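[job 4471] stage=fold_predict status=RUNNING
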Amino acid sequence: MQRQSAMAAACLAALALTACESGDRANSKICADFKAKAPVSATADAAQPMDECVRRWAYSLAPSPDEADAVADAAVAACGAILSRWNQQSLSQPSPDGEALSITTGQPTNPMAEHNAFARDRALLYVVQARAGRCAPPPVKDGVPEGLPG
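[job 4471] inference complete, writing structure tokens
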């Protein structure tokens, strides 16, 4: 009886160690592939450079022990120049008469507020995705994730 209890305990310990060991591996099914190049074209989505920037910074900063919200805010802050360029582009676009409403919240909004919300939401998604999948960050060169849009 004592031997069976010891065997059961050993099996449970081995199972627990196996679960921990497999938990350290990245889940490639949800992790971003930073080796793949994003297609660049004249008609590319205006949000693409911002999305790429927050994705790379969010993955790079995801290992931080800070709350995901704080890490997402840091990723957006790291992409401030790209967000500013995107906002600048929207200023040159003709604006519709009347007050614009957000298609997600129905609240009054403007392009700059929507750009910021987009960046923030995507950064938070990427932080959580990187943490959940135990994903590797993109390569870094001179303290900056490689592959960021210029």
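[job 4471] summary: Confidence is low (pLDDT under 50) at residues 1-22.
[job 4471] exit 0
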